[in-house]
Amino acid sequence: MVMRHSERLDDCCQGWIERCNKEGQYEPFDLNMPSKLPVQRALRDFSRDTCLTRSGVVLSQMVGRGLLMTDNTPDLIYCSPSLRCIQTATWVRDMSGSQALLRVEPGLFENFQYPHGVPRFLTPLQRLQFPVDKAFRPFMSLDAVVGRHESNDEYNKRIQTVLRTIAQQEEVLKEEKELKVLVVAHASTVDMAVGLLREKPRFTSDAELDNIAVPVPYCAMVYLKKFSETLHSRDKMMNFEVSTTKQIGVGLTSFGFFFIFLGVLMFLDSALLAIGNLLFIVGITFIIGVQRTLVFFFELRKLKGSVLFFGGILVVLFGYPLFGMIAECWGFILLFGGFLPGIVNLLRSIPGISTITYLPGIRQFHGSCICARMQEKQCRRFAKGAELVPRNFGGFETL
Questions:
Q1: d(CA 311, CA 308)
Q2: Which chain positions lie within coiled-coil regions (predicted)?
Q3: Which residues pair with 78 in a beta bridge?
Q4: d(CA 65, CA 95)
């Protein structure tokens, strides 16, 4: 996983060093500025090695929480020597539950020409405020990176060499599992990771580097997976099998909806409704798998919707289609209602269908209380699960 650092302070507050300097003391003048600087050093040293904003800290925490919730907690963390990258990696590590120490790699530093000289990076003593790996030996020295002028081709080759070296590292883990590595660096690093680690490398040009922050925003992340040469053909077969299974699931689900629709047209025919419900459940199982289906339907917070949904199916089978369909529809809304706004937004991006979604009836439905309530409920669930732990780390306070 290669990601860009979070929001930097000098990009949000122009000329912040001069404006916050009150007789040599730091005094924030904007709510997005940290209440305290992360490290104790001269203010002029932050001009070329800036820190994160408050929003940047929260954004880093959300990314870390997202990695935890998607089972992508990193086992190894590499980062650029820039302060903003070290801070971002620290908060992502903290919120993802990772036990890995930060491996500060100078070879990941960007290749921008600084008019006032090379940035003054953190000293080894100042880095001790962060969970850095003191035993790590970098692949490249800092002098080799910033000690000379570097062309664009040399910069591409340097990033390619460092990323390939990281990908080839072998680690001893407590349990046998897939190794997950997080690299926190700059916008150009994310773009180069996509271009340089492919079978036919794509180099990033000078023109692309000038505005690389536009297509690669703060905390943008790319997820790459390394395949060995011997397993390449087998992986293709496995991917084909998985895609075929999902195609069967989509087909069964579509037939399920068709039979349910046909059963409604035939004045709530119990047989057609039962066949449609059976095909729908089997299709969902084919698409997401048996284990995920059980977790989805029988999760504690979705238990009410599952009881109504499956109870409605049983009522339909016992010969009461009207009451069964009412209970089943209400359970379906409780289970899948949170996906409705996303489905409508997806349809709006498809040419031809997008005009239909903006018709008065459908547009009002999208903004109705049901969708708004479902979105609000999901946001509350995420906020409850991603509750930020109040801590003061390196002088930063969580919001």
A1: 5
A2: 152-179
A3: 103, 183
A4: 5
pTM: 0.59
CATH architecture for the domain at 2-227:
3-Layer(aba) Sandwich (3.40)
The CA distance from 399 to 390, in Å, is 8
Q: What is the amino acid identity at position 293?
A: T
In terms of Cα–Cα distance, which of 33, 37, 36 is closest to 12? 33
Specify the pLDDT at position 149. 80
Percentages (nearest 5) of helix, strand, coil residues in the chain: 55, 5, 35
* Residue among 5, 31, 51, 12 at smallest CA distance from 183: 5
Candidates 46, 26, 45, 42; CA nearest to 34 is 26
pLDDT at 394 over 60: no
Hey, where are the domains in the chain?
2-227, 242-385
Tokens of 256: 């399920």
